[in-house]
Design goal:
single chain; alpha/beta; 6-stranded mixed sheet; 15 helices; 10-stranded mixed sheet; 3 domains; 29% helix
């Protein structure tokens, strides 16, 4: 049993009275405290605090499991209101570090020390969501008469109740999810109401929940864990241990409506990266460069201005602060004038024509201008072959230039070069990538200036950064099926994908959101789309980062 404060002792004693626990049984629960010592503490409570407690009955028999469960249920019920009131009145901070801890299990003290150092530096509050797991093979549980205890180094940080951080975000400290749960967020989509929710769990998972148009989608995320692996020797136990993450989630409260979330992950020595800094238990290293910044799907013709500035252009933008070695782009083109969403919409085609937006090479130049505008001397641009990029390829295959005089010359220019460069392979043929060729050899436009610092990936290419495969867009799945974070999590390799526009973490697969306007013309109804990027740290750890309002951090 953890060492108890006066307040905790009072709650436990009252819980024992309610559940008819004897004096001897309560003393035994408190790490074998002597009965006289327990009586002495009760007397001191009356003398020092004026609180008089009834005497517990005497019974030396062993406490049965039913009564023990009732005792702890009552204890947490009584303590939750007190803890909630305490946090509502004493926590007045903008930054929180939230993780979880398993009962009857030692803490990763190196990680804990680094987190506490971080909290001291940033004036942040550490909150730890406790969860229980019965492991009869655990050496730590066997060493104690009762396994309903938590390491005393974290006891003052435990959060047993629900805590609202602002009008959009709450911590679900009252929810205890089994640590071996395959999908820990399952069933909670509507549970949090209009709030985003943070749940304590050792497996990292993140999902977004669709909300009505013009309302920020809800984010549901787990925290990671501060206690070491402690699972049963079983099928589910080994799976739980595999997905166990020494991690926490950083929450920054910007206003009553805006918050920022991101994960931190412990290294072997307990240190962790957060944005451009590396924190250990005693030091902070500044000006850390990230390995890669994977942007949410660009659709650059419709780039959101707040995302453009917060990600690339501002002096304190993600790109300028984090200085990624690679800037990775999905759906760099929207190809709005002829993509699969609009090509058969005659009203849309009419509107484009009469508003002077029907020139395809001019549209490609807008994409090149975007890339030139955000390119830096410290990053290499990497373009992931994506389905909207392939709309240009499809137009060259399927278009009928006689009915498209605006683009007939450009069509024949590109078609000639595709045919000129065709080569046979062992089983088929290949030719130039149309967009890459155009960037280097435009017809009547300027093309791409930063061609030497841009990599054009093709389908089935590989691009690995810190053992993470970045070359998959996410639309194509296994054996020709449709892609998703869940399906691509099964291929063995860690991946970061795009395509769905709804940020997601499912086991080894991270999925970014988008960077353009949220109200693209071909979508309607409730949406889970968000402006979300992903970064890779020097140790290969990852985190999603949202652009909220016009900021990406506090």
């Amino acid at each position: 049993m953890i060492k108890m404060s006066t307040e905790e002792f009072l709650i436990l004693y009252k819980s024992a009275l309610i559940n008819k626990i004897s004096l001897e049984q309560l003393a035994n629960l408190m790490s074998g405290m002597k009965v006289k010592s327990l009586q002495k503490r009760r007397s001191e409570l009356k003398r020092k605090n004026g609180v008089e407690l009834k005497h517990l009955r005497s019974d030396t028999s062993e406490l049965d499991s039913l009564k023990l469960t009732g005792l702890w249920d009552t204890y947490h019920k009584l303590s939750s209101d007190i803890i909630k009131g305490k946090h509502n009145t004493t926590i007045n901070k903008n930054i929180y570090v939230i993780t979880s801890a398993q009962n009857a299990t030692p803490v990763n003290h190196k990680f804990l020390k680094s987190i506490k150092h971080y909290c001291d530096i940033r004036n942040a509050e550490l909150l730890i969501i406790p969860f229980r797991y019965a492991n009869p093979t655990s050496i730590w549980s066997l060493a104690a008469k009762d396994n309903d205890w938590w390491d005393n180094t974290i006891s003052k940080h435990l959060l047993f109740n629900e805590l609202i951080l602002n009008n959009k975000l709450k911590i679900l400290g009252n929810i205890k999810i089994r640590p071996t749960a395959t999908n820990p967020l399952s069933g909670f989509d509507s549970y949090t109401g209009s709030y985003s929710g943070i749940f304590g769990h050792p497996k990292i998972q993140w999902s977004t929940v669709a909300t009505p148009a013009n309302i920020l989608p809800k984010i549901l995320s787990t925290t990671g864990c501060i206690t070491i692996q402690n699972y049963t020797d079983s099928n589910v136990g080994w799976k739980g241990a595999f997905h166990h993450s020494f991690a926490a989630i950083i929450v920054e409260i910007e206003s009553d409506e805006i918050f920022h979330l991101r994960h931190i992950h412990a290294g072997i020595d307990g240190s962790f990266y957060d944005l451009d800094k590396l924190y250990s238990s005693t030091t902070v290293t500044n000006n850390i460069r990230v390995e890669a910044l994977i942007a949410g799907d660009s659709h650059s013709e419709f780039m959101d201005n707040d995302v453009l500035n917060a990600t690339y252009l501002n002096n304190d933008s993600m790109s300028n602060v984090l200085k990624p070695k690679y800037l990775v782009f999905h759906d760099i083109q929207d190809f709005n004038s002829r993509n699969h969403h609009n090509i058969d919409n005659e009203l849309f085609r009419y509107a484009l024509h009469h508003n002077g937006n029907d020139n395809i090479e001019g549209e490609l130049q807008k994409v090149a201008n975007f890339l030139d505008n955000i390119s830096t001397e410290f990053s290499i641009n990497v373009l992931i072959k994506s389905n909207h990029d392939e709309a240009f390829d499809r137009w060259l295959e399927e278009s009928y230039p006689k009915t498209d005089p605006e683009n007939a010359r450009f069509y024949y220019y590109m078609k000639y070069n595709l045919l000129k460069n065709i080569k046979l392979t062992e089983t088929s043929y290949k030719t130039i990538d149309p967009f890459e060729f155009w960037c280097k050899h435009p017809d009547s436009q300027q093309g791409l200036k930063n061609i030497e610092t841009t990599i054009f990936l093709q389908r089935d290419d590989s691009f690995i950064v810190k053992d993470i495969e970045l070359a998959y867009h996410g639309d194509a799945g296994i054996n020709g099926s449709r892609g998703s974070a869940k399906s691509l999590s099964k291929i063995g390799a860690k991946t970061i994908i795009g395509h769905a526009h709804s940020p997601n973490i499912y086991e080894g697969c991270y999925q970014v959101g988008l960077s353009c306007a949220l109200n693209l013309g071909y979508v309607s109804g409730p949406s889970s789309w968000m402006h979300t990027h992903c970064i890779i740290y020097p140790d290969g750890k990852r985190t999603l980062i949202n652009i909220m309002g016009n900021n990406w951090r506090l």
